[in-house]
Amino acid sequence: MQAYIIRRVIGAVFVVFLVGTFSFFAIRVLPGDFATASLGLDAGSASAENIQQRRADLGLDKPIGEQYAVWLWDTVRLDLGDSFLTQNTVWYEIGRSLPYSIELGVLIMIVGFTVAIPVGLLSAIFQDKLADYTLRGLAILALAAPVFWTAAIASLVVLQWDLFLIDVIGQPHLWEDPERAITWYLIPMFAGGFAGTATTMRLLRSQMLEVLRQDYVRTARAKGLRESVVIIRHALRNALLPVLTVMGVTIATIIGSQVILENMFNIPGIGNKVLTSLFARDNPVFQSVVLIIAVFTVLTNLVVDILYGVIDPRIRLS
Amino acid sequence: MTQTLDPTVVPLRDPTLLDRSRGAARSLARFMRGKPLGGSGLIVVVLFILVALLAGVIQRHDPDEIFETPNPDYKANPSTLELARNPDIGSPVLVSQFEEPGGDHWFGTDKFGRDIWSQVVHGARLSLIVGLGASVIAVVGGLIIGMISAYYAGIVDLLIQRIVDMLQAIPFLVLVLVFTQITERSVFNVVLWLGVAGLAITTRLIRSAVFAVRESEFVLAARVVGASDLRIMVRHVLPNVVAVLIIAFSIGIGAYILAEASISFLGAGPQGIPSWGQMVQAGRGSLDLHPWQTVFAGGAIMLIVLGFNLLGDALRDVLDPRLRGA
């Protein structure tokens, strides 16, 4: 078991290192850098000297190998540098934006799972009945609808019937001003949850169908257990495991839709930071937020893999 | 099998061709009956392909044409006071912006007085090119890389798998946003980068399929008689992973269409061509009063993705029931 965990951890660290290296080179391969982006080279308004000066200030004029070595050494020591754009440390920027993303991400997951689990369950229990077809149809729709469109249509509904105020003043956290914060998060969390539900629901349904045919379910029924106990304690618990194994993918998908939703609803989270730092060529912030996102998904995968290995010894050996 | 005994049938120059097309028609009919959802997906896809091909015919208006209506309050040489009250009074025509759907403009007009129906019709072209093109690139690339990875195993496989892990640790949308910024955002480049971003998924899928085939006895037999690696790959492995290739191709299309719509929505999509994602964004400025541009463009995205997903699901069930629910 120990060897398995060590192997997994080394693999995860290597993947995070690759992601960091990728984002380091990606942001530098893109045309333009922060000097040209901030001084507006394309308009011809900045002189070549100004740009050279700015580059030297930011350390962008050094050879790329040297920059990479510096970045690697700093990152290993957890020094992420300063944002080109705001001059604040990257840690400060992340500290400010990460709570928003975690709030929204958790809300999206809560909505997603509270919808997906009962829906997947019902769909499997009533296999090939009307309820099954309706729910599966909804899941297929949810998978096809772009998240920004669902959010836009939801906003439209709210605006048309004047349900609540969409434009929230300030950027309240849930623990600061729960009422205003929840009205702010309401549309993005349902749009994101709706989009995230479909895959989970379909996976859970197919797993349930398989589990319900297993011998131990028949045994449980033969023992005369109540149907609800059979379904929830015997079938659902086993059907949920594969759903958890794809958590890493689920989280990556949710973060992807958060990039769009945070942009649409002016939520200053990590997803928003990805966009602004990418377009402004704010290298230190971009590298760091991509790295943080990768750490999140890789860590989820790692925890799931290890837990799975604990539960199922066959996996450890493969 | 499908030999015809009817003497009235005029023999074609190539009878096998006739047989084959009949067989295709028959299996199509069987597919439509057995998989009604997949069949309806196929119909949706075919409809969109027709719309895209015939966009110039069914557009009714040029998508860039700006419509104007006579100004009822028009007055030549207005006084300064009148101009202050109504700044438009001096122009004989007004841009007919935000017209409701119906009449000459089936889907209404947008903020700039352009016909939304013709824009939506032309938007089908981009979505189809993106979906099909990117999926072809991802599958062909994934086939090459996946085969190398699975066949040579060892250190090559390990390295490729870690790179795939890396690409999958980054949200697909972020990957696409970064890639498409590298080059000019022409349609071709965006399609190319979407396909490259999709390589991670197709490589993984195809690799595991090749792995399974590699272990089979006919590959061992081929190796025993001294067949070269290339020959084993092309003659023995490839034909046995075709089903997986078709599945990977068809289930990817919807995702690429959504990704293009998303980056276009964020203002980073291909330039110089009508895009549904960009139209959803454009319509958001006046969503509460004039939602039609957003509603129709977004509805079109959902419908085309729905069509491809339904078709892909059905194809997967038919070709490889083991992958159901994957």
Structure explained in plain terms:
The complex is a heterodimer of chains A (318) and B (326). In chain A, 78% of the residues lie in helices and 0% in strands. Chain A is built from 14 helices and no strands. Chain A has helices at 2-29, 34-39, 48-58, 64-76, 90-125, 130-144, 147-160, 178-211, 215-222, 227-245, 247-264, 270-280, 283-311, 313-317. In chain A, helix 5 packs across helix 8 and helix 8 (178-211) crosses helix 10 (227-245). The longest helix of chain A has 36 residues, at 90-125. Chain A is globular and about 85 Å long. The two termini of chain A are 12 Å apart. By secondary structure, chain B is an all-alpha fold. Helices cover 68% and strands 2% of the residues of chain B. Chain B has 12 helices and 2 strands; from the N terminus they run H-H-H-E-H-E-H-H-H-H-H-H-H-H. Chain B has a two-stranded antiparallel sheet.
First and last CA, distance of chain B: 34 Å
Shape summary of chain B: elongated
Order of helices and strands of chain B: HHHEHEHHHHHHHH
User: What quaternary form is this?
Assistant: heterodimer
* Biggest interface, CB < 8 A: A-B, 51 and 43 residues
The biggest beta sheet of chain A is recorded as: none
Low-confidence spans of chain A = none
- The shape of chain A is globular
Structural class by SSE content of chain B? mainly alpha
**Could you spell the SSE succession of chain A in H and E letters?**
HHHHHHHHHHHHHH
Count of extended strands of chain B: 2
Cross-sheet strand order for the largest sheet of chain B: 1-2
What proportion of the residues of chain B form beta strands (DSSP E)? Answer: under 5%
Provide the β-strand percentage band of chain A.
Answer: under 5%
Q: Output the radius of gyration of chain A.
A: 24 Å
Evaluate the radius of gyration of chain B. 26 Å
> What profile does the largest beta sheet of chain B have?
2 strands, antiparallel
Tell me roughly what share of residues is in helical segments of chain A: over 70%
Mean pLDDT of chain B: 83
The overall strand count of chain A is: 0
